[in-house]
């Protein structure tokens, strides 16, 4: 089938060979860049520390990185188109000033070109150096971000998306692993990886809504938009829908369709149902006391957008700012990743209670226990009774039956019941003694013999006595 064939095609692409430290690359503007040690690997390319060419070696504090891929590959070529059109330093700085921003989380494009080595051609691009990605921070924090942090990240991403949308592009792959902290300032976050970036409005002409089965489910399956599931090219509303899914996951830890990511149709249907009833969708993700109303409003605003509509960016900012205000916080430009900040997620008290239950039940995975199901459960009452060791006080009751064991010996004392058959046997012999005394008192010797011999012998003795009487 075409979609499957398309999915396997990238695996046939060549992998980039590793360049030696100190190799010099010359970009299309004739600027020379010296490569340092590799610091990362993508699907088809390598990432090197880099600096402007000089006699000195590239140190660990180098401010640039160079991304290198074989020239036959497509991702970097697509990414380069975006950077060359929309990420030049002068364009970014002009936007920051005109919109009175502190900074804009779009990487600066410093140069690109082709490099030949051992008969092979490679495409490269020079960018700013960054620190860790937010996916690592998300995992380290127990798959939860503070509510304040999530709303701040949402505000920064709205700034980024408004900029790239105004420059005719959409990103189409927003997620924590594509959000990097600045190398110099950990309070700044940047959206990277424009390999799926799409020019939705070339020369100001908007693309029309058109479904293509060959493009179904493009992007990262858990976050991609309903349009992408239907095979429609990315749009501005799709970027904001993806952002909404990301923020919800960062707040609650897990999207409800993540249990079947291998089934894209299931994920699509679940998202479609969630869009039809956003309030119910948010309720499934959060407990009633932690339900972020700003996320309901944000997703409702995105739902109201048409495929070609321009989003009301300021309205979306206002929704998130109201969310900050509701928890007594402000956008202070400080990205605090500690989970206990401003009621984002479970408090330390709730965590302690949860761990206590896990220890009692001997469960190693805390996420397997759902508080709503534990509270009314009768099994929990039994477990708590065992944990409090209540039966220990009544332990002597178990020893009491041991002292009253004589009850078992009482039948032994009444064993004369077994001797009763002996008495009845004597009763059987009594008629034998009386019968000869009444019938033949003259033959005492014969009676005695009869009583001592078998019944047959007694009959014979009586038969012999009769002839004597007749004589």
From TrEMBL:
Residues 393-437, 462-471 have a biased composition (Basic residues). Pfam families: Pkinase (PF00069). Its EC number is 2.7.11.1. Residues 393-471 are annotated as: Disordered. It comes from the Eukaryota. Residues 33-313 form the Protein kinase domain. Keywords: ATP-binding, Kinase, Nucleotide-binding, Serine/threonine-protein kinase, Transferase. One of its GO terms (molecular function) is protein serine/threonine kinase activity. Transmembrane segments: none annotated. ATP binds at residue 67. Belongs to the protein kinase superfamily. This is non-specific serine/threonine protein kinase. It comes from Conger conger.
